[in-house]
Amino acid sequence: MHIRAATRGSALARWQADRLAALVTVARPDCTVEIVIVETTGDLDRLTPLEQMGGQGVFVKEVQNAVLDGRADVAVHSAKDLPALTPEGLILVAIPERADARDALVGCRLDDLPRGATVATGSIRRRAQLGHRRPDLTFVDLRGNIGTRLARLDGPDGFAAIVMASAALDRLGLAPDVVERLEPSVMLPQVGQGAIAVECRVGDADTAALLAAVDDPEAHRTVAAERAFLAELGAGCDLPVAAHAVPMGASDGPGIDLCLTGSVSSMDGATLLVEERTGPDGSALGRAVARHLLDDRGGAALLGR
Q1: HSE (CB half, 13 Å, CA atoms) of 86?
Q2: Catalytic residue status for 81
Q3: Residue that wins the pLDDT comparison between 44 and 188
Q4: Residue 141 carries which DSSP code?
Q5: Reduced to 3 states, what is the DSSP secondary structure of residue 164?
Q6: Would the pLDDT of 55 be above 60?
Q7: How far apart are alpha carbons 66 and 73 in whole angstroms?
Q8: Rounded CA separation 186/111 (Å)
Q9: Which backbone phi and psi does 215 adopt, to 5 degrees?
Q10: Which of 18, 30, 43, 81 is catalytic?
Q11: If pLDDT is split at 50, 70 and 90, which confidence band does 40 have?
Q12: Exposed, middle or buried: residue 254 (CB in 10 Å: 0-12, 13-18, 19+)?
């Protein structure tokens, strides 16, 4: 069997596609995987802030279209880049093992940031949560691949620190001199952060069966709960929302509760609403946390509803 895997061309995206290929060939030694590189809107425009470009989806639509129009058989994404709703014609069939979901502060530890320091990040969520904890900080937008962002930290811009996903550093083997992994209690991660998401066409039973062999049930269950939270909010990475789910038992399974923490904040981080709940049904849990934040805690007003 031969499958074509569509992905972005960044070093991290290529790592993720290569990782999928390695997992597939271990599960099915008779299968070969061809990597199909696709340029996305987010890759072509590295200057416009993501929220002005339409937020979540700018790094995935063209990759998804490559599968829908037959140029590829599967789409490989960073799960955090996916909109909450899968487009018609595709199915999210596999989430391989999940890496560290935490955010990382690079260049300076949070407690060591001088008053009024400048922190660079293109994420509204990260700015809001850091701003809630440290209202004195100044934020500037930062776009580009991982290498470009790290290079600017040592450049003339005057950034005290930048924020990025811990998983990106780990997967690319990068070890900056100063890195602080921010616990979810300090900065709640983006929905799906640290996970790889793999889609195929609806009705492509052979490919779906192949990808099911590399699916990690625990990772899939936690990401599904977080995505249910996002879908119920009707939001994406253009708004300051976050969620993180973890299994409560020693091993994952339908009878093991998940603990899901979700948050909604004002754009400046002055107001940050957080709710944590547990339950065995991840999708129901995600929806319940979202509805509580929207209806009972004032989240709807924060999101401009």
Answers
A1: 19
A2: yes
A3: 188
A4: -
A5: strand
A6: no
A7: 8
A8: 12
A9: -75, 140
A10: 81
A11: confident
A12: exposed
Q: Tokens for 42, please give them.
A: 């987010």
Between residues 297 and 46, which one has the greater pLDDT? 297
Spans of all domains in the chain: 1-97+195-215, 103-182, 217-305
Say what the pTM is: 0.91
Has residue 117 got a pLDDT over 80? yes
Going from the C-alpha of 184 to that of each of 141, 157, 198, 203, the distances in angstroms are 22, 29, 25, 38
Whole-angstrom distance, CA of residue 237 vs CA of residue 51 = 7
Say if residues 226 and 250 touch (Cβ distance below 8 Å): no
Q: Please state which of the four CATH numbers 3.40.470.10, 3.40.190.10, 3.30.750.200, 3.40.30.10 is assigned to the domain occupying 1-97+195-215.
A: 3.40.190.10
Query: Measured on CA atoms in the order 272, 152, 197, 89, is the torsion positive or negative?
Result: positive
Confidence band, pLDDT 50/70/90 cuts, at residue 48 = low
**The dihedral sign for the CA sequence 227, 231, 232, 233:** positive
Alpha carbon 225 to its chain's center = 13
CA distances from 283 to 40, 140, 149, 223, 305 (A): 30, 35, 35, 10, 23
CATH code, 103-182: 3.40.190.10
